[in-house]
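Why does residue order matter? Because the sequence determines the fold. Keep that principle in mind as you read this record.
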Amino acid sequence: MIKPLICQLHFAISCQRFGRHLPHRAVPVLIPPVFEPFKTNELCAACRLVHSLEKQKEPTPASRSQVKRAQKGLENWCKRNLPNDMDGKFPAKRFKVETTDGVNVIVNRNFYKETINKYQDDILYTLKLEYAKKAHDLITKATITNPNEPSIDHPEEIFRVYDYVDECYRVEMKVRCNRDGNYLHILRVYKK
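Structure:
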């Protein structure tokens, strides 16, 4: 299902790069060029990832260098993209979003630290870190699956569990609810 989309994408890109217009037509038409199929070094990063996944029979854990690179990437992303906000009279860096069921949720640096530190042995760990960069957007589209999951460590808190499902994965996000507010706490990724 992904492969035809990628091929269409490459077709569109090749038409833009190497195609030619027919100016005598009322609506300009792009004629695709005749060329060799894309070679590996010409594929975009997403296509290389898809092709490498197609070759793998079973998912393999990421190498230590891939994990470190993904962790550092998420840390740098947080530094660049968390907006400045005020927490009372104190400055804070965080997102404030609203879920589909009307709950206001804060996504702060602690969420990203928890996501980096938890479930590092998961086979989809590096993918989870990529999804974490979009968590502030995904939580606004997610559906609630459990509004009152009890907290094991803190009896005065509950978790609201949300799921976001895309073409390939189910993203589970837990919002920690206590007297201080509702904070996005953890994110996990599962195969559909």
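The beta strands are 20-21, 30-31, 84-87, 90-98, 104-108, 143-150, 158-165, 169-178, 181-191.
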